[in-house]
Amino acid sequence: MIASSSSQGYSALELLLVIPVGLIIAASFAVYGFVTLAQHGARREGIVFTARSLAALVASAAVAMYVWGAFHLVMDETMVREACQEAVGEAIGMEYAAHIDRYESSYIPLGLGCHVKNGDTYIVGVPDYVNPATAVFGLTAVALGAFSFFESERRLTKKFKKETGSC
User: Fold this and answer.
1) Nearest 5°: phi and psi at 94?
2) DSSP 99
3) Cβ count near 135 (within 10 Å)
4) What angle do CA 28, 30, 36 make, to 5 degrees?
5) How far apart are CA 150 and CA 144, in angstroms?
6) Per-chain mean pLDDT for the chain
7) Domain boundaries, the chain
8) Which residues are registered as beta bridge partners of 118?
9) Rounded distance between C-alpha atoms, residue 68 and residue 167, angstroms
10) 79-130 tens-digit pLDDT
11) Distance between CA 14 and CA 20 in Å, rounded?
């Protein structure tokens, strides 16, 4: 877990950097994916360009999902305290909600942890679907990108061997 510990959760400056940079990256992946698909066509150029385009589009979805989760973490101190008290109260009882001793912000997985004196940490702020969806989209993008790369290399090797007459 990559964490940024803070007594009040996330720094506003950190989120002000993560959100716009993430939006720019997501838009860049989406533009690349759509432009590649439009230039080469799904049927005309074959599976390599289609897989490359889909990898970029799915990577865009992964980054966009992460940014969506980061939007949910834009909270002031009162909102953080109330969210933590509600989460702890629902999990172990309202009498423990007063025993929150610190907040732990985490970027991977994305979430705001409310640490209780008994040692437990309860995650708030980010919808439950954000981290799994980001992971699935990210892994799918890596798999499609790897497939595209290795298929392209295989085709180039096959073409080279055919041109040089070596088997």
Assistant:
1) -65, -25
2) G
3) 15
4) 100
5) 10
6) 86
7) 2-164
8) none
9) 51
10) 888 888 888 888 787 777 778 888 888 888 998 888 888 888 888 889 999 9
11) 11
Report helix, strand or coil for 116.
strand
Q: What's the rounded mean pLDDT across residues 28-36?
A: 95
Inter-residue contact 34 to 82 (CB < 8 Å): no
Q: How far apart are the C-alpha atoms of 28 and 38, rounded to whole Å?
A: 15
State how far the Cα of 133 lies from the Cα of 83, in Å rounded to an integer. 23
Q: Is 16 exposed, middle or buried (0-12, 13-18, 19+ CB in 10 A)?
A: exposed
Is residue 73 classed as helix, strand or coil in its secondary structure? coil
Neighbours of 24 (CB within 10 A): 12
- Give how far Cα 111 sits from Cα of 1, 53, 85, Å: 10, 30, 15
User: How much is the pLDDT for 5?
Assistant: 44
CB burial string 72-103: b at 16+ within 10 A, e below: bbebeeeebbebbbebbeeeeeeebbeebebb
Q: What DSSP line would sit under 29-41, residue for residue?
A: HHHHHHHHHHHHT
Amino acid (one-letter) located at 160: F
**In angstroms, rounded to a whole number, what is the distance separating the alpha carbons of residues 100 and 114?**
7
Average pLDDT over residues 140-149: 96
Between CA 15 and CA 6 the distance in angstroms is 13
Say what the pLDDT of residue 3 is.
Answer: 45
